[in-house]
């Protein structure tokens, strides 16, 4: 976004603009320091949520984690308020993916104050674990995600086709093995058999359910070989998608006729002969 | 298909043509609504077949599912009749892949009327589960499947070579481990050992059979590393196949000399200099 | 091979040449029929060896399989003699990969005549199972294997680097987990731990050995993620190798300056301007 | 490195330079023999460390392995001293990755002399197993590693994005299954559940922990399908990265304007028309 254009429509007070530059900015020293501190805090807070779940923690550790959690909550609350104040459009931020994540991951701690003694209720426990969604805040700091995103978007339809094929495959194989092996061999229902088929086709292979009859093993063998070969399909799709996305990025557009896809080292438009910029 | 040509040879009555346009069509609003409703019904009916297999269902749910099944059967029967009437060549449709699937997946319900009380016979149960094949009806709605199909067709021979190599590998490894480990370690016969080899080479790894002796483990290690590296081969094949299929699609043909493979932004045929269309 | 040149140096009698054309040939109707019959017999004989290993076979089936095996042995012996007689250089054939396989897979039956009652000795049983190597005879009939072979040959060094990396990885991870988990958790020795590491890095995951301690699980997690990401490397290598092999095949060579890598649709050499053939 | 330039700044005595040529050189017959002997010794010494860990070794074998270990230690010590003397900059070598590995893998044997009878202490045992790191010495001999290295370096950022995505995925799935399945089904804490998620997403699938509830199985199914499809991403990244690295290598640079990325068969710079060398 060109700076001249943005400042025209920007009605934020100067201090809010400065705040926004630090919190949302990427290049100034202050903004980079802010980002680094926040990445550290996000990772630390996720590790704290994990640590809390370990049974047999000593009371001292539990106390430390409780205090740390309050520290994280306060800091992320300040960060959230800062983002609301510093954003050019506070509402847009609040409604965005990151705005929702930022809010959702500070709420649980405050809710536990409203309902004291309730931390053993499932809903509250579930809410508290929402804090682990803080990892999604990290996505902010990954520039290159864009290229991957473009490749996946360009391949959206082919990926859908792939998933429908895999789903059909596991439904059919699951139903066949439910019929052949039956409940006595662990294939207690079609959904369970489909679970087995997914475990098999994706080559995970827990082994909690496995075919016992000869025919079942033969069909399982087919499912494995298909799964083993089918993995090639999304890989091919993503590879071709990545190449397309990269070429689309590299290609420069002719200012006269608008043609894209010029070589990065071309000097003249290959259609109209216009001098290419840059 | 150009419309002028098709209407000449089309001897269907106007109402049958209109019906065919709704059922087989892809672009008119009525056709798209019809497709959406059908996709919903297919998914719902497959879920119903799955739900039926869960043991411990309450009698109420069983009744609901039985009625739902009759609803699906009636609707799919009407769809089948509509397709027979609306198709330009009813016989060709009836003999096609989709025609057979459409028929096979409505038959089981009617058969259960002919043989009352027989729903516990294996053959009937098997037939009833055929209804799950309705998922294949979804393939109708996946445009992009064509490109994948072309890529796979172009790579057909190489995929065959790949499968023969993998089969040889699992046969040899299965036989070797049958010899080394023997029935006392779970490798009860060569087919069972080959089942183990497929489980291993495809990296599924259930663990229901695994080598116990040192030499067996060493050979298993080799099989795993081979399987791990070999997966690269179908992936490479499909990726190169996808690129070929895409290039073949993009390439425009010269109206004068027939040469294909022109760049998408070329204005003149690179062989004969003819102006390229489009 | 141009026929005129070959017949000059060919000192076989006419009937041996005709025999050779049928057995080794690929295009004449007799040769193609011979190939089809042999492929069928190879598959049947491999299936028979497998069936023989199933315990609990009825005596009738055992007799049938024994007779079938003698049938296969006689036919493959005639095929071997035919190849020796029909080959342009009998010694070269006998010493080639296929010659050795052809001989090795008929020997066991004759050996069992020399040492009657010995079919339960391990060495003899091992020899008899050699017959399963007949699957390798199938490789003769796979044209497209050549392109894959070229791609793998072109990528030979990179694949070696990949295997050395994976081996170093599993040795280091195996040793670390032997140290951390120790014999009490199933990691009884470094070779066993390396077996576990291969099972893990290749994503097979039997589960016969798995880490129990926290630190062991953490390291196992690292090994899995590495294995999951590293699979991308051979895939990339083979894909690029396949593209290279395909391009090298497609490229035509200039008769004047010898330059290869011309586009398949080029009419003139892009270096010296010579007319390209074909 | 051009020889004339290097000898100017090279203040090593002639015998040290000759020693360095043998030890560090790659092309002279003596250097190649030295490399081959060393590769053999590295592999042998790693195998010896592994063999030592097998319980139930006879005292004779233990003695042989102890003596072999001293032999390896002496030879690798001489190699280390030779490298220090023959290197153009001894300090730089000593501080390099290989210098540290070379030192670390001879130290344990000498330490066991200083602390006799201590070979059962964990720290000493850990140190002794460091000797297995000798496999890393092999990396010296793999030329082609460079191309792979370049491809990985070029894809560094995208690989980081991939790993952050996978980590976020396993953290979220691990937390969800901890909540749904709970300690009674083996998901005893969030770290353990994340271990399960990694086992699942990477398609390893030990089966030591697996979901028991319907909802847990459904979520596990999603995790598997995601893991199965996501593997396509690093593969695409590495393939595109390898192609880039290869093209960058092949491209020749124009001596006049410095432009790279010329076709390998181009005669003139496509930007400035200068004659290209070679």
TrEMBL record, chains A, B, C, D:
The main place the protein resides is membrane
The transmembrane residues are 37-57, 63-81, 93-115, 159-180, 187-206, 218-242
**What sequence ranges are listed for the domain Ion transport?**
32-249
Protein topology in the membrane:
Multi-pass membrane protein
Query: Where found in the cell?
Result: Membrane
Q: Does the keyword Transmembrane helix apply?
A: yes
Keyword entries, A-Z: Ion channel, Ion transport, Membrane, Potassium, Potassium channel, Potassium transport, Transmembrane, Transmembrane helix, Transport, Voltage-gated channel
Q: Under which name does UniProt file this protein?
A: Ion transporter
């Amino acid at each position: 976004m060109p700076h001249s254009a943005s400042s025209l429509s920007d009605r934020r007070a100067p201090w809010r603009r400065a705040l926004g530059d630090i919190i949302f900015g990427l290049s100034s020293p202050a903004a980079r320091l802010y980002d680094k501190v926040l990445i550290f805090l996000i990772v630390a807070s996720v590790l704290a949520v994990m640590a809390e779940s370990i049974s047999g923690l000593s009371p001292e550790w539990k106390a430390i984690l409780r205090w740390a959690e309050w520290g994280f909550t306060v800091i992320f609350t300040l960060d959230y308020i800062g983002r609301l104040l510093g954003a050019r459009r506070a509402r847009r931020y609040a409604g965005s993916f990151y705005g929702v994540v930022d809010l959702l991951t500070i709420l649980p701690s405050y809710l536990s104050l409203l309902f004291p003694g309730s931390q053993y209720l499932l809903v509250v426990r579930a809410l508290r674990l929402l804090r682990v969604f803080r990892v999604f805040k990290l996505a902010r700091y990954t520039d290159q995600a864009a290229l991957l995103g473009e490749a996946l978007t360009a391949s959206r339809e082919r990926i859908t086709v792939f998933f429908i094929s895999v789903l059909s495959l596991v439904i059919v194989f699951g139903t066949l093995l439910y019929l052949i092996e039956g409940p006595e061999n662990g294939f207690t229902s079609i959904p369970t058999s489909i679970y087995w088929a997914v475990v098999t086709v994706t080559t995970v292979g827990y082994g909690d359910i496995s075919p016992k009859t000869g025919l079942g093993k033969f069909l399982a063998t087919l499912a494995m070989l298909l799964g083993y070969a089918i993995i090639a399909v999304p890989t091919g799709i993503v590879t071709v998608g990545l190449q397309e996305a990269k070429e689309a990025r590299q290609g420069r557009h002719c200012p006269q006729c608008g043609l894209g896809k010029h070589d990065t080292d071309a000097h003249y438009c290959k259609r109209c002969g216009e001098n290419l910029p840059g």
